[in-house]
């Protein structure tokens, strides 16, 4: 089961270097839209844009379900949408992906969107949270029929993005997981989460059984935590050793580095796993690659497979997604 509120639409375009400077976009970054970015969304719509249903956590749950195939509705998703066309599309796409989506629907804000600006092998994301920012614990998570879904779940995954929205919702789910010896997974999600939402992040960290991140997030996290190292294996080891509430489960830290090897730290060792080779001409866009990695990982984790198998599935899923636009996938996986 996954809980989060997300930016559910991606608009994709190629930006010139000048425009990127104007909007201060960095390669491989994720930011929240400010007033100066509103024009970016207006510019985008004038162009021929591709729309894809998205949202970081929702992408991961869809991929996990796709990897599992049968039974359907293994993944349950909570989020917040507007009562509008994009919201309807999201509901329809969730159904098509066979995930059990339970949205908090409100009409104060429209369904969120996210501009994905692709250049070469990099993607820069500008999220206009809108409805995604409106998720309310008391209006949704606390309702008996929704909390029952939490109680029935074995594994939870929340993107770090949600730390900007509803810390109390995350803590409620995280504490439930810890008290019932279930698996709680969190993603660092973006450098700005590690920097500007570090207090929220560190309130949740004692409950985190599996922590995901990429190399730029890991570097920002290490700097903010005064780890005094830039070595990714050391960062993984130090993050793994942070205080933990449920001592029955040792934390696992999984850090990706694009085309470079993935680092996995568990209580007794730090291992590295090479990613699947891909020719750069076969890369369509890397948007959704990290979400797909997590989805692949979760698909094996819920089946209680060993960690190396979880990483193998994660690498497979990411490799599939970067050959396609957005976080989309063929009808069936070719993974065993």
From TrEMBL:
GO MF term list: adenosine kinase activity; ATP binding
Superkingdom, natural source: Eukaryota
GO biological process, one term: purine nucleobase metabolic process
Protein name: Adenosine kinase
Note on cofactor: Binds 3 Mg(2+) ions per subunit.
Record family assignment: Belongs to the carbohydrate kinase PfkB family.
Keywords attached to this entry: ATP-binding, Kinase, Magnesium, Nucleotide-binding, Nucleus, Purine salvage, Transferase
Active site positions: 291 (proton acceptor)
Main localization category: nucleus
Pathways involved: Purine metabolism; AMP biosynthesis via salvage pathway; AMP from adenosine: step 1/1
UniProt organism field: Seriola lalandi dorsalis
């Amino acid at each position: 089961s996954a809980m989060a509120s997300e930016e559910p639409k991606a608009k994709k375009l190629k930006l010139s270097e000048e425009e990127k400077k104007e909007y201060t976009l960095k390669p491989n970054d994720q930011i929240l839209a400010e007033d100066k970015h509103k024009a970016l969304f207006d510019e985008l719509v004038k162009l021929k844009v591709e729309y894809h249903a998205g949202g970081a956590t929702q992408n991961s749950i869809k991929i996990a379900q796709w990897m599992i195939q049968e039974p359907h509705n293994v993944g349950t998703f909570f989020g917040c949408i507007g009562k509008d066309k994009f919201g309807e599309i999201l509901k329809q796409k969730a159904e098509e992906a066979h995930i059990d989506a339970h949205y908090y629907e409100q009409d104060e804000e429209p369904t969120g969107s996210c501009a994905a600006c692709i250049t070469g092998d990099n993607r820069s994301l500008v999220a206009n949270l809108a409805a995604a920012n409106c998720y309310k614990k008391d209006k949704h998570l606390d309702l008996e029929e929704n909390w029952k879904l939490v109680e029935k779940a074995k594994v939870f995954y929340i993107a770090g993005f949600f730390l900007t929205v509803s810390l109390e919702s995350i803590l409620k789910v995280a504490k439930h997981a810890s008290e019932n010896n279930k698996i709680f997974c969190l993603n660092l999600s973006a450098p700005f989460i590690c920097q500007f939402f570090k207090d929220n992040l560190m309130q949740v960290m004692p409950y985190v059984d599996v922590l995901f991140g990429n190399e730029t997030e890991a570097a920002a996290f290490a700097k903010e935590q005064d780890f005094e190292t830039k070595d990714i294996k050391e960062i993984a080891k130090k993050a793994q050793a942070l205080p933990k509430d449920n001592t029955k489960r040792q934390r696992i830290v999984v850090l990706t580095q694009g085309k470079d090897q993935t680092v996995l730290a568990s209580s007794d060792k730090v291992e590295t796993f090479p990613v699947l080779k891909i020719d750069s001409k076969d890369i369509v866009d890397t948007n959704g690659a990290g979400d797909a990695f997590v989805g692949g990982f979760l698909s094996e984790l819920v089946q209680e497979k060993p960690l190396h198998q979880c990483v193998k599935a994660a690498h497979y899923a990411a490799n599939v997604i970067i050959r396609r636009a957005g976080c989309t996938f063929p009808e069936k996986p070719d993974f065993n």
